Amino acid sequence: MAASRDAETWKDVQTYYGQVLKKSGDLQTSACVTTARLVPRHIQEALRNVHEEVTLRYYGCGLVIPECLENCWILDLGSGSGRDCYALSQLVGETGHVTGIDMTESQVEVAKKYIEYHMEKYGFQTPNVTFLHGYIEKLEEIGIKDESYDIVISNCVINLVPDKQAVLQEVYRVLKHGGELYFSDVYASLELPEEIRTHKILWGECLGGALYWKDLAVLAQKIGFCPPRLVTANLITVQNKELERVIGDCRFVSATFRLFKLPKTGPAERCQVIYNGGITGHEKELIFDANFTFKEGEIIEVDKETAAILKNSRFAQDFLIRPIGETLPTCSGCSALESKERYRESEVETQAEGEAGSMQEA
Ligand SMILES: C[S@@+](CC[C@H](N)C(=O)[O-])C[C@H]1O[C@@H](n2cnc3c(N)ncnc32)[C@H](O)[C@@H]1O
């Protein structure tokens, strides 16, 4: 039963992204439109270098380019025409690698067509990007191995998948310990009623399959991820009277979350941390999520979850981390700084409510 539901949804989505939509301007809502603010300059440059046809067929809802990328292996779930993959392939460098996976053949074809163009533009001898045709719920079928990626990204795709738990479970399997899923997607202010979930255009436009935002934390915990960390959220607008009628009181946001897979270690504790300013493009400050911005050289007190993430992920090399009570050693760039004694609760729920503004339960 579930298998035939999946197959039917895949067919509808493939038709929508392969035949109905030809360019981002064909969309009927702002769900698959990116309204990222304050894009760092090195990312703007990387995006500018992406081929025009690839960019024209971009349908993402957020900026899925995290920090600290050199040499990383990245997997893009539902990579479409490959815009994010090509931007990331510059940022990971020739010794890193980006794999894009999508089930819509025509989108994969557009992505593959420009591999040589981009490698030549970036001056890479060996291509560091691969595009595969396949389903993101079944990564094993296309040969994606356990613990083989540092980062998994996804831009406006998981809402299109009926079995979201299967996707997140696959992500957990293929991520290395300390790795993260950094993804933008669409969330609903309530459990969606049948009329919205079965509406073909709303599904294709990334609204009909949106997860009730509170369910993300439940799913993440069930699978073994740390609680989701909200990065940004934007309210989605619908400029179509008929779609507005079907949607009624339900509201949607596009939101970017980070989900970390950490090794099972002993109990974590609150810590003081100092960012050393070593991350490309984020030398002065690192906006980690909606709760934490780390300024170079500033002492910040963090909760145990944030401490565990910083200690056990690729960010470890960029921070001095000490349990509260121990003195942090001074470092170049830190000595003249005083403690700001800042502690902010990392409450995804509170943040999501605040950021999304109007995401209240009906
Ligand atoms: C809204 S578009 C976003 C594409 C791309 N991430 C971008 O930002 O341009 C959604 C994409 O997800 C793909 N997709 C949806 N469900 C999928 C699945 N189960 N497996 C693989 N790809 C899927 C579609 O084919 C489509 O290309």
TrEMBL record:
Family annotation (Gene3D superfamilies): 3.40.5.100, Vaccinia Virus protein VP39
UniProt GO MF annotations: methyltransferase activity
InterPro entries: Arsenite_MeTrfase-like, Methyltranfer_dom, SAM-dependent_MTases_sf
EC numbers on record: 2.1.1.137
Keywords assigned: Acetylation, Methyltransferase, S-adenosyl-L-methionine, Transferase
Keyword Acetylation applies: yes
Region (Disordered): 342-362
GO biological process: methylation
Methyltransferase domain location: 71-217
Catalytic activity, as annotated: arsenic triglutathione + 2 [thioredoxin]-dithiol + 2 S-adenosyl-L-methionine + H2O = dimethylarsinous acid + 2 [thioredoxin]-disulfide + 3 glutathione + 2 S-adenosyl-L-homocysteine + 2 H(+); arsenic triglutathione + [thioredoxin]-dithiol + S-adenosyl-L-methionine + 2 H2O = methylarsonous acid + [thioredoxin]-disulfide + 3 glutathione + S-adenosyl-L-homocysteine + H(+); arsenic triglutathione + 3 [thioredoxin]-dithiol + 3 S-adenosyl-L-methionine = trimethylarsine + 3 [thioredoxin]-disulfide + 3 glutathione + 3 S-adenosyl-L-homocysteine + 3 H(+)
Keyword Lipoprotein: no
PANTHER family: ARSENITE METHYLTRANSFERASE
UniProt record similarity statement: Belongs to the methyltransferase superfamily. Arsenite methyltransferase family.
Listed name of the protein: Arsenite methyltransferase
Record gene name: AS3MT
